[in-house]
UniProtKB/TrEMBL annotation:
<dbReference type="InterPro" id="IPR028098">
    <property type="entry name" value="Glyco_trans_4-like_N"/>
</dbReference>
<dbReference type="Pfam" id="PF13579">
    <property type="entry name" value="Glyco_trans_4_4"/>
</dbReference>
<feature type="domain" description="Glycosyl transferase family 1">
    <location>
        <begin position="235"/>
        <end position="399"/>
    </location>
</feature>
<feature type="domain" description="Glycosyltransferase subfamily 4-like N-terminal">
    <location>
        <begin position="37"/>
        <end position="220"/>
    </location>
</feature>
<protein>
    <submittedName>
        <fullName>Uncharacterized protein</fullName>
    </submittedName>
</protein>
<feature type="compositionally biased region" description="Polar residues">
    <location>
        <begin position="1"/>
        <end position="19"/>
    </location>
</feature>
<feature type="region of interest" description="Disordered">
    <location>
        <begin position="1"/>
        <end position="21"/>
    </location>
</feature>
<dbReference type="InterPro" id="IPR001296">
    <property type="entry name" value="Glyco_trans_1"/>
</dbReference>
<dbReference type="InterPro" id="IPR050194">
    <property type="entry name" value="Glycosyltransferase_grp1"/>
</dbReference>
<dbReference type="Pfam" id="PF00534">
    <property type="entry name" value="Glycos_transf_1"/>
</dbReference>
Length: 429
């Protein structure tokens, strides 16, 4: 790309700020229009930070998740600058890959190279860098950009890497994971502050780096976007006319979700037990799930293709119970689907333990069953399927938690306080 073209992109959709507002750059590999929890969380927090007095810019990759192909309308070889809502967004090219460990590693490092190459040319120098991990390797770009821009960075940990990757069987313990652990530790120590979306994540960081400032910043939800009033005929038709109650899973159909547990449950139901399952989404496990449903004639499970983000509230509002599944215990991992279900007044059947189960228990908005606990999963399902009053009570209590503890406005205000506390004393230094 020519210098002239880079100069044009650098000024495209630029901010008109007079410099009185602090400027923050969100460094993340994943951002809308991609679907997913990090994408929604970061963009919604960014919008609220704008309302709280910040100039916000995002440095991210060309959109490609989860298909592994750059979205239509973007040149896969060139950077791109546009607006995502009110957030000026700089997107850099990268090597894309949907599956395969070595290919994903190549993808991660190609984004690091793109961010280091184009970030200083296309982004406006921030006062503070907010970095989203995973992938952990983004820390290489964070350290480089923080030094180049002479600004501190706050490192946000959504999953503990490489620990989570080891738990999920993506990698085996060895030299590579020891190197990743050293990178993790050095990044934590270099950060001005560390935020994490769960108590378990922050507890892990504090044990290893007690000298670094830490703060739990949970995921959350905008309760005004969700609720029973958002149901519509198109959503009901998509979920199907068959008798309910409908247990809905809406999200990534991935390996970590342990979705075969839902198929096992559906297959075990006798004819007298009401209820059916609708899985909404896409991901690496979808093809195998579809083949199993067909092969074993599991007629109570329907898979619906991934839907636009704006349609999710209507789909949740048209269901009766949210079923949220993890295939294993991943320290610190709390599915974001929990908060959207709460805001939708949906009772939750959670197949997970650890911190997600504690969140459900504290809000008293559903029932949690440990993964692979087949002895308790079936009676728990029947309890929710057959008791409409219990579903109503759990739904109301979940909505109350979404309006208070997990309200995105409340969470953004907490993040704003953390970020302002670590701003340099002189932003012009």
């Amino acid at each position: 790309m020519s210098t002239t073209e880079l100069s044009r992109l650098a000024t495209e959709t630029g901010s008109s700020s007079d410099g009185s507002r602090p400027r923050i750059c969100i460094l993340t590999q994943y951002f809308p229009p991609e679907m997913g929890a990090p994408q929604a969380r970061l963009s919604e927090l960014g919008e609220r930070l704008i309302d709280l007095g910040w100039d916000v810019e995002a440095l991210t990759a060309l959109p490609n998740y989860p298909t592994g192909k750059v979205f239509e309308g973007f040149d896969p070889r060139q950077p791109h600058v546009h607006q995502v809502g009110r957030i000026r967004t700089v997107r850099v090219p990268l090597y894309t890959a949907k599956q395969g460990f070595s290919k994903r590693i190549r993808c991660y490092f190609s984004f690091v190279r793109g961010a280091k190459r184009f970030g200083p040319k296309l982004c406006q120098r921030p006062d503070l860098l907010f970095v989203e991990s995973p992938p952990l390797f983004i820390s290489y770009a964070a350290k480089y950009l923080a030094k180049r821009w002479k600004c501190p960075f706050v490192f946000n940990v959504s999953d503990l890497w490489p620990e989570s990757a080891i738990r999920m069987g993506v990698v085996k313990p060895g030299l590579a994971t020891k190197m990743a652990e050293r990178l993790e530790l050095s990044t934590y120590r270099r950060a001005t502050a560390i935020t994490g979306q769960s108590d378990e994540i922050i507890a892990s960081v504090r044990v290893r780096c007690p000298e670094v400032r830490t703060q739990v910043i949970t995921n959350g939800v905008d309760p005004s976007r969700f609720g029973p009033e958002h149901a519509d005929d198109d959503a009901r038709q998509l979920l199907g006319p068959e008798p309910g109650p409908i247990f809905i899973f809406a999200g990534l159909l991935g390996l970590a979700q342990g979705l075969n547990q839902i198929l096992d449950l559906a297959k075990s139901l006798d004819a007298s037990t009401p209820g059916r399952f609708v899985l909404v989404g896409d991901g690496p496990a979808r093809e195998d799930l579809e083949k199993r449903i067909e092969r074993e004639s599991i007629d109570r499970v329907k898979i619906v293709p991934a839907q636009p983000r704006e349609r999710i509230p209507a789909l949740l509002a048209s269901a009766d119970v949210a079923i949220i599944s993890l295939g294993m215990t991943i320290p610190g991992a709390v599915p974001s689907k929990i908060y959207e279900a709460m805001a939708s007044s949906l009772p939750i059947l959670l197949i997970a333990d650890g911190e997600p189960a504690k969140r459900i228990k504290n809000a008293n908005c559903g029932i949690a069953v440990s993964p692979s606990d087949t002895q308790n999963l079936l009676p728990t399902f029947k309890k929710l399927a057959c008791d409409a009053e219990l579903r109503r009570q759990y739904g109301e209590q979940g909505r109350a938690a979404a309006e208070t503890t997990y309200n995105r406005d409340h969470i953004a205000a907490m993040l704003d306080r953390v970020l302002r506390d670590v701003l340099p004393a002189s932003r012009d230094a």
